[in-house]
Structure formats: C-alpha cells, structure tokens
Amino acid sequence: IQFLASQQFKAKSKELAGLSAHGLVNGDQKCFSFATETFTGDVGFAVVETTDDAVIIDRLDELLPEIVACKMEKNLSALFLAVVNIVELKGTLLLCGPSELSLAKAAFPGCEVNDANTMMDLGSRVSRKKDYIPEITKAIKAGWKKPLKRGVSVVDMMEALGKLEVDPTDYQRITRRGSVLAVKVGQRFTVDDD
Questions:
Q1: Fewer CB within 10 A of the end CB, N or C, for the chain?
Q2: What is the rounded distance in angstroms from the CA atom of residue 64 to the CA atom of residue 182?
Q3: Cα–Cα dist 36/149, whole Å
Q4: Cα(135)–Cα(37) distance, integer angstroms
Q5: Whether the predicted model's global pTM rises above the 0.85 cut
Q6: pLDDT digits (tens, 9 = 90+) for 15-33
Q7: How does 99-131 read in b/e, with b if 16+ C-beta sit within 10 Å?
C-alpha cells in the first residue's frame, strides 16, 4: 500500500510540473474575507502539494507575475501560493508584493525570507486549514493593515494583464500571453520591503 501511495504522489507531482503557471495558481485556491478596524478585504490562498517542491519553485519567475495577475483579476487584497513538499513535510510561501510580504511577516514571525523578498520558508507548516489561515487570521485581527507602499501602478492594468489562451490539444493547459508582468530574460522578480 505504501509503495502504491508513493507512486500516486509521484504521478501527481509529475502532472503538476506540466501545468501552466495559471493552472498552478488557480488549481487549489480559496478566498477568505476579513473585516476589522484596520483591514477589510479578501485574501486568496493557493496551495500546490508535491513530492518535488524544487520543480515548482524553479518556476518562481513565471509564477509570481501570474499570482499578481490573478490577484488583480479577482480583486484580492493579497494572494499567496504555498508550495508544500508532502514527503519532507515542509512549506514555502511565494510572495508577489508588499502586502503579501507584510502580512506573511506578521503571521509567521521569525520565518526566513529570501533576498528578493519573494519566498518565505515556512518550515514544517504544511496545512492551509491548520497552519496558514489561522495565523493569517490572527495577524489581521491583531491589527495588520496593508502597507502604504504597494508597488507599481499601471493605469489600464486589466488590459495589460494579457489574455489567457487554452491549448487546443490539452484543454487543462492555460497560458497567459502578452502580460506586462512577465519577467524579462535576465531579470528577476523582486518585492520592495518598507
């Protein structure tokens, strides 16, 4: 039974590696609404569970612009993507902007953030229901508010997000084309920290 289970997890991870950034960001995403004195808005939280987190994390510069685009399309105040290694039981949180960075630091104090402020090591936290949302909820209820510095604004951003295209040979493969958020060759996606 253990062998069969490991083979199923490997097959799922291989399938995930082939998904588009859009598919990964939107595949297992839930939205949570908050209304406090300091913050009112919706926070999206997506999770990718895999046996090989490096394959997903290696696509960081493809995933971060897609997280930003999805956040804007759904009018979310913040959107997170957690990459969970289900074998090693460790989580990595992808951070697409100053709001996500600020809220993650408030919810998970002491967790390390990379130099570009785009990934947070969540250690053994792996459950959206038990580990992630309760801590985010506590941080928001404790008075967290969106930072004043929110990144670059673009006038007609919805148009600039590009268009979603469906691969006619694989209807599950959806790709964003023509987005101003796409990272140029030789550049890295970074988040400014106040």
A1: N
A2: 9
A3: 20
A4: 18
A5: no
A6: 667 788 999 999 899 999 9
A7: bbbbbbbbbbeebebeeebbbbebeebbebeeb
